[in-house]
Amino acid sequence: MSYLLWNCQGLGSDLTVLALHGFIKKHRPSAVFLMETKMQNNRIDRLRCKMGFQNGYNVPPNGLAGGLSLWWDESINVDVAFSSENLIDTKVHGLSNGSYCRVSWIYGTPYREQKPAFWGWLGSQLCATNDPWLCGGDMNEFIWHFEKAGGVAASHSRPRHLLEFATKAELIDLGFSGPSFTWRGTRNTHFVQERIDRGLANAA
């Protein structure tokens, strides 16, 4: 069983759709979580069916920003317990062996002024559990200073919202393979790279 999580930054481009089709064909995920779809439900549902996923759950965008979409195939059952513009919290049941896992699909706020309130809310919404639990997505937040390159150096005294959340929820960083940074862009004429996408899981 594999999951694909991607901040697609809008599904309106033919190149983005082509890239998504390539990811799905290569990795054959049981579930796909898309962030920043910027697309209304009816268009996403048509695309989901075209990609071969019969089941889905959408959180529509707010105007021209945001939007979440979760797709899954016939190998699993997904129960959605809660959703918001930043979170789809689910229980995923594997049909082959009857196992289950809580999966929290997260899109962290990109706005600095909203981060304290958002991470405080997420910490109250997602509490530690003895059930198997995976959290993943674009957190829009890095933890350690070496997870950023370029631009203004990260202050060692800055709030570490993601680390505080993971510690309270008893979650472990799953690590990664491939490039060290998951986002790159320009800020105030400086080229910046950061690791802001990750997976976390508890011991179970």
Automatic annotation (TrEMBL):
Annotated signal peptide: none
Cited InterPro entries: Endo/exonu/phosph_ase_sf, Endo/exonuclease/phosphatase
Record-linked Pfam families: Exo_endo_phos (PF03372)
Single GO molecular function: catalytic activity
Protein name, UniProt field: Endonuclease/exonuclease/phosphatase domain-containing protein
Domain Endonuclease/exonuclease/phosphatase: 5-198
Superkingdom, taxonomy of origin: Eukaryota
